[in-house]
Amino acid sequence: MKIELRSRVLINQVAPFALMILVLFGIALDADQQSLRNFASGLFWISVLLCALMAISRSMTIERDDEALVGLNLSGVDPIAIFLGKTCAIAIQLLVLEIFLGVGIILLYRSEVEDLWLLVSTGLFACIAISALGTIFGFLASGLGVRETLLPILLLPLLLPVLIGATRAFDDALGVAAINGWNWFAFVAGLTVILTAVGAGANHLMAEN
After folding, report:
1. Contacts 24+ apart (CB under 8 A), 57-61
2. What is the pLDDT of residues 43-66, one digit of tens each?
3. Domain locations in the chain?
4. Is 133 exposed, middle or buried (0-12, 13-18, 19+ CB in 10 A)?
5. 15 closest CA partner among 40, 39, 50
6. Residues sharing a CB contact under 8 Å with residue 141, sequence separation 6 or more, in sequence order
């Protein structure tokens, strides 16, 4: 996390990339305000996922170049603690991006927040789910010598349920769909617990082997 703060990659590269995605989607939809509002939730989470891939890939590069993961494993630190720490580091970056993108869809797409608690709760849990799954696949890719270009192929299909649930919950929070968004939040929260538990257990097994 300190490396990311010093490098300012989040501010100088990832945040402008996220803003560019929102602008390009707006141009693609021909600046139709109603369409932009209707699709704001999906565009928001697609942007988050693309930025998450950048953050996870950069994390893998740092660990491989500095052999940081090897050092942590040799230091005797609990593998579960390593996993949770890494997940939190990525989640913090994504939360900052979610705030940035949230302001973006409000200003650019004229979206209106009708249920702030649903919006915040869904954003938090979905962020943790993405970070947990990204962390475990980052560990796997680093350990197997898999190139970062394969990460989206491995990660995106498994994140599809999180994307669907978070998008539907956001649809309700932004008032563009007459659905019970809290049911979708519960779905996302359940996935978050499962992915975090499975990721922690898998990282523990990998460290032992």
Report:
1. 57/148, 57/151, 58/4, 58/9, 59/86, 59/89, 59/90, 59/138, 60/138, 60/141, 60/142, 60/148, 60/151, 61/148
2. 899 989 988 888 787 766 666 655
3. 2-208
4. buried
5. 50
6. 60, 147, 148, 150, 151, 154
> Would you state the pLDDT for residue 109?
85
CA dist 138 and 59 (Å) reads: 8
Structure token digits, residue 39: 């699709």
pTM of the predicted structure, to 2 decimals: 0.85
Residue 73 and residue 4: Cα distance in Å, rounded?
21
Query: What six digits make up the tokens of 66?
Result: 């500095």
Please answer whether residues 46 and 108 qualify as being in contact, where contact means their C-beta atoms are separated by less than 8 angstroms. no
* Distance separating alpha carbons of residues 99 and 161, to the nearest angstrom: 22
CB atoms within 10 A of CB 140: 15
Closest CA to 45 of 125, 129, 118, 101: 101
